[in-house]
Input
Amino acid sequence: MWSNPGKKLLFMGGEIGQWREWHHERGLDWELTREADHAGLQQWVRDLNRTYAQRPELHQLDFTQTRFRVDRQSRQR
Output
């Protein structure tokens, strides 16, 4: 997902593997990060985001028209 074109979207709690859906009247279940699986997911997302930020080739064309170029010749086949 991180290498696909377009902005990366994680909804509230996705970075820690929260079980229940986020709700505006509750906070995130940060206590889940005390468990190894959830802490591991949080670290993995952190590492992916760091790599994404440090590698310009993954994001430098995000706001250019060439980012999503359509090959018209292949569409006509």
Notes: The chain has a mean pLDDT of 81. The two ends are 28 Å apart (CA to CA). The first helix runs from residue 36 to 54. Residues 13 and 19 are 8 Å apart (CA to CA).
